[in-house]
Amino acid sequence: MNADRLVEAYLNELATAAEGLPAERRTELIADMTTHIAEARADGATSDDDVRAVLQRLGDPYEIVAASTDGLVQTDVPPRFRPRDFGAVALLLFGPFALLIGWLAGVWLLWTSDRWTRPEKLLATLGWPIGYGVAVVCDYTLSIPLGLTIAIATVITIAPLIPLLKNGRPGRSATRAALAGATPATSANS
After folding, report:
1. Helix (H, G, I), strand (E, B), or coil: what is residue 60?
2. Which candidate among 11, 18, 122, 176 keeps its CA 20 to 30 Å from the CA of 35?
């Protein structure tokens, strides 16, 4: 049954195109399109060519999704720092001065947060250990003056924390779709 595969491929492409929509709207859109296809097939569109014609009349899935977002506005929602996010950054920065317990607490807060990516977490975790290691190497092995050693170690320690301050992404996305009051269209050809 090639017609069934055509319909399945079309609905999969529609689902992919609709990933950016709110879950309820995405489910409604896919259900509506599935109903349209089922009705057309029940009315006699059974051959592969008939099904292709039905799908062509419905339109490109990406265009359908674009048309169905009437009334939806994409807005950038600035990420809000939660108290635990401030705590993670502060403890990563100042925690080693509290017998390393504070730094360990900061690492735990960092890795249990959904705000940052894994590479950002890894860099921030390694900031203090690498900074301390560089300070030891600069001071004892390379005999670099203490002031320059402290400056280098500080930059190496703080630099990985900068992305944590500017690149937070609550819920893995800083973009949200907000209803503007209008009811979205069901499809391009409805």
Report:
1. coil
2. 176
Q: How far apart are CA 24 and CA 22, in angstroms?
A: 6
DSSP per-residue letters across 5-45: HHHHHHHHHHHHHGGGS-HHHHHHHHHHHHHHHHHHHHTT-
**pLDDT for 156-181, tens place per residue?**
888 888 877 765 544 333 333 333 33
Query: CA-CA distance, 27 to 23, in Å (whole number)?
Result: 6
Beta bridge partners of 76: 175
AA letter at 179: L
Return the domain boundaries, the chain: 2-72, 83-172
Specify whether the CB–CB gap between 158 and 63 falls below 8 A: no
**For range 148-153, the mean pLDDT:** 86
- Nearest CA-CA partner of 104 in 125, 123, 86, 119: 125
C-alpha distances out from residue 81 to 58, 119, 121, Å: 44, 19, 16
Tokens coding 128:
């203090």
The string of DSSP letters for 77-137 reads -PPPPPHHHHHHHHHHHHGGGGTTHHHHHHHHHHHT-SSS-HHHHHHHHHHHHHHHHHHHI
pLDDT of residue 178: 39
Q: Are 135 and 152 in contact (CB under 8 A)?
A: yes
Beta-carbon contacts of 134 under 8 Å, excluding residues fewer than 6 positions away, are: 152, 153, 156
What mean pLDDT comes out for the span 20-44?
86
